[in-house]
Specification:
This protein is mostly helical. It contains six helices and no strands.
């Protein structure tokens, strides 16, 4: 078995596992809120769950090569940092644009486009508050 096949199989297996757990989570939440929404299913829960699933798959795809190269603890720290930075990239861009130094502006733009913007998959607030 080649290395590519191993990583691809591991990614596919973890993605299917994440799909099933995210779907189970959304189904349980939908069944808990079913009586409070006038007896009809809330479709927005499944839309938010789809965003959560895509975010988790992206993090999994970025974390697996790290896990293959580094120790598991170090990979967990890198993945958590990537998760946190991925939700804060917009602020990095805004802070960089407020700088008067051209190198800082260029560097913040470079990091903004290099790092994943996980806020693109964050549809929870729109579902919860009707955005």
């Amino acid at each position: 078995m080649r290395r590519f096949e191993f990583i691809f199989g591991k990614t596919l297996g973890l993605s299917v596992t994440l799909l099933l757990t995210t779907l189970a989570m959304a189904t349980v939440l939908s069944s808990c809120t079913f009586p409070t929404v006038r007896g009809r299913a809330e479709v927005g829960i499944f839309i938010a769950a789809a965003g959560i699933y895509m975010e988790l798959v992206l993090l999994t795809c970025l974390a697996l090569p790290l896990l293959d190269v580094h120790h598991a603890g170090l990979s967990a720290i890198f993945t958590l940092s990537l998760f946190l930075v991925g939700h804060l990239t917009k602020y990095l861009y805004v802070l960089g644009e407020q700088s008067k130094v051209a190198g800082v502006r260029w560097g913040s733009r470079f990091l903004f486009y290099l790092l994943p913007n996980l806020e693109n998959f964050n549809w929870k607030n729109e579902v919860a508050y009707g955005g």
